[in-house]
Design a protein that fits this description.
Beta Polymerase, domain 2, alpha+beta, globular, 17 helices, about 50% helix, two-stranded antiparallel sheet
Length: about 325
Amino acid sequence: MQLIKINKHIQSNNSLNHIIDFCKEYKSKNSIKIYIVGGVIRDILLESKSNPNDLDLVIDGDIENFVKEFSDKFSTEILKAHSFLNYKLVLPDSLQVDIAHSRKEFYEALGKLPKWEKANIFDDLSRRDFSINSIALEIGIDNVVLIDPLGGLSDIKSSTIRILHDKSFIDDPTRIYRAIKYKARFDFTFDQNTKIVLQNSIDHVENISLYRKNNEILKFLDEPNIHKILELLNTSDIFRNLVPQHFMSKINFIKEDYWSNAPNNEKIFFSLFEVKEKERNLFLNSLNIPKTKMQSIISLIQIKEKLQKDALVDRKEINFSNDLISNLYHCL
């Protein structure tokens, strides 16, 4: 049943179909193993309405030659993404393809990025965050085969978020933010052990850099169920401390149709609307925001502060949409 659903989705998606056809042809001429992994498999099985713009391929074999021929086939530039064998390619239709060698990882220090070495697909799936993200689709010459050594299919069926080992959140505390995001997005529940381990691992968030922590927080802003995320964060003081105090405190004053289409810099501004100046500046300065977007956020903060002081603001001098200004007034 799952493979029928996956094959039907592949046939309806031109980009994915063309990529898989290329992989099948490549595999017929080379000794290599090729897998689709990550959120795409999960979302197909969940029949998610989201339209992902990225695809993760895992290679066990000569990845450099595969990437070169993939790039030639789809006329796209090769970008080296990390120190390990990981490449990014953006197709003409804006689909971003991440291609990495299968690997296993070792965490030498809490919260730090791991060391790695080449490994097989089972080691690769075992290093991931949750069982629902640890399903692979092996691309064969004539067909595709589901690989599910860690029970991800069963957890999708039971709407469960489950970590793969008890040190998961300690090794990489950003997984705490992802756990909350997935719970809200899919309306899943944590299995009992995951819930206990998560609560006991909260303090380890302090082991990661502000940049990594705050980038995970920013990912909340693009989630369609951000109200559910905030509700979960406010269920206890432990979760509440994962974000700045008063983060997204004005969400109920912002119109949903505006928010769903607002650019990232405007979402950042509204998310920090009532955050104290010192903490707000610390948050902003920790990010790698392009200069133009940062200036836009600063301009909005200045306009907000003027309005709060009942100072006159010339509407002609405000280079922002009417929708933004309207929502700004709602939040004052």
